Amino acid sequence: FTAGIGENAAAIRARVLDDAAWLGVERDTAANDAGGPLLTTPASRVLGLALPTNEELMIATHTRNVIRTH
């Protein structure tokens, strides 16, 4: 999970992680409530993470790359 909702919305992360249980995701409730970064239990077959992002930097980097190639 990234960006504002992914980093700050424990309830949304919980719903998504719980809905992905069929994939083998096991949510760590305490870790999710604390914001992670690790959101899943050691027994989970899928790793769930909440990671900080810098979206503005990524947009600027991609824009620079497009400008340089044209």
Salient structural properties:
elongated; 4 helices; 70 residues
Q: Tell me the overall shape.
A: elongated
Number of strands: 0
Helical run tally = 4
Mean pLDDT: 94
Question: How far is the first residue's CA from the last residue's CA?
Answer: 33 Å
| Gyration radius over CA | 16 Å
Q: What is the share of helical residues? A: 40-55%
What does this protein look like?
By secondary structure, this protein is mainly α. 53% of the residues lie in helices and 0% in strands.
Q: Could you give a quick summary of the protein structure above?
A:
This protein is mainly α.
Secondary-structure map:
Elements: H1 3-8, H2 10-19, H3 29-34, H4 55-69
